């Protein structure tokens, strides 16, 4: 069975397919953004690993640790989410989203700051302005069809993107010396907002994917589904408020809500389907992040391990699984794990384990954990890049537009 088009989550209207004469890599939003996101994930970790190992960072608009964190969120994660949303909003509303030249310009708006962040070609304020443009533009692009289709239940999508843009602005104002000490909380809030987007998207697609793959659709709990997104946003609010006891309560609440949700999704059949279990394992890492964050605040330890549980484990595994699945369904192919793709999923799981658990068990193994994690991440994304680049660049296998 295939997930082509996410037909059961189309909310209103009929999907308006892009024109068949569009150049394949620019036919739908998932194509350029997944392709760019995959290979940028490799480059991001290679540069980070080389920089941390050598101590060399030749241009410091961003200091290396901040560059690594910023590009994980506003580079890699944003690219994958943009690709998914540009494709899904078309399905949900039956209205067009950018394709062809408009999509190319949007992709270029994402790509330009990635390239220029390491090259002193622009004055810092101009670079900051360029980097701050993509998310507001994406929010407006997605808001137009949602407003036109009158889908208020989908309005959180552009609103979350605008909040992400606000976090990015805070980071740049700190780097430029206009605000002081806001980069760290802004980055942590941004990670929470990405987690919120993952939680929202997971609620839409995981039960549907399960029904299509193993014939089992979880019934879901109304209260848990209602609380899933707000519980994560509450964590972001408490981080902004910087009140420790509120952070502990909020993160524990989010952990409980997401755990109940994940348990409700469980079915033994998914264990036989790599394209399903990768999403569930990624979601479990989000829960681990909430628990680790609460523990870190409670005993006054750094929250870096919790953040890496969210980013490497949760966001990394979930987005990798989503790209692997969506790219097949939206190019007219059957949803089966291609050769070596399960190995990529396992490597990313090892990357998360190494980065999160090794420094907790043996703090002196931090450098080793970074090297193991980065290496596993790089190999995992090279695998998916090799297997999927040609798929993303070629026309649909079934001859349909898209």
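Q: What amino acid sequence fits the structure above?
A:
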């Amino acid at each position: 069975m295939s997930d082509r088009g996410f037909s059961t989550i189309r909310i209103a209207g009929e999907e308006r397919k892009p024109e068949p004469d569009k150049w394949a890599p620019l036919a739908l939003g998932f194509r350029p953004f997944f392709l760019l996101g995959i290979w940028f994930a490799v480059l991001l970790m290679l540069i980070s690993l080389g920089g941390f190992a050598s101590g060399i960072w030749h241009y410091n608009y961003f200091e290396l640790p901040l560059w690594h964190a910023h590009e994980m969120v506003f580079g890699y994660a944003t690219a994958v989410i943009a690709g998914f949303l540009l494709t899904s909003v078309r399905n949900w509303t039956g209205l067009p989203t950018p394709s062809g030249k408009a999509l190319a310009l949007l992709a270029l708006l994402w790509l330009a700051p990635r390239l220029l962040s390491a090259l002193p070609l622009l004055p810092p304020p101009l670079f900051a302005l360029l980097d701050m443009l993509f998310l507001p533009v994406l929010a407006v692009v997605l808001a137009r069809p949602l407003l036109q289709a009158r889908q208020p239940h989908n309005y959180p999508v552009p609103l979350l993107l605008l909040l992400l843009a606000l976090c990015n602005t805070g980071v740049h104002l700190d780097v430029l010396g206009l605000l002081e000490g806001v980069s760290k909380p802004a980055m942590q809030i941004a990670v929470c907002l990405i987690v919120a987007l993952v939680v929202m998207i997971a609620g839409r697609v995981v039960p549907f994917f399960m029904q299509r793959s193993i014939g089992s659709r979880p019934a879901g709990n109304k209260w848990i589904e209602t609380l899933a997104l707000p519980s994560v946003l509450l964590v972001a609010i408490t981080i902004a408020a910087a009140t420790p006891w509120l952070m502990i309560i909020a993160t524990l609440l989010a952990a409980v809500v997401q755990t109940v949700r994940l348990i409700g999704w469980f079915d033994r059949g998914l264990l036989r389907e790599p394209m399903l279990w990768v999403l569930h394992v990624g979601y479990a890492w989000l829960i681990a992040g909430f628990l680790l964050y609460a523990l870190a605040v409670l005993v006054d330890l750094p929250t870096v391990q919790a953040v890496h549980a969210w980013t490497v484990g949760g966001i990394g595994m979930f987005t990798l699984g989503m790209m692997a699945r969506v790219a097949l369904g939206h190019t007219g192919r059957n949803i089966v794990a291609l050769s070596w793709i399960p190995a990529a999923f396992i490597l990313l799981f090892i990357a998360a384990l190494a980065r999160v658990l090794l420094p907790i068990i043996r703090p002196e193994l931090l450098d080793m954990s970074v090297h193991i994690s980065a290496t596993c991440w790089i190999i995992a994304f090279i695998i998916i890049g090799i297997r999927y680049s040609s798929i993303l660049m070629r026309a649909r296998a079934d001859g349909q537009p898209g």
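Q: And what stands out in the fold?
A: The chain has one domain: 4-15+25-393.
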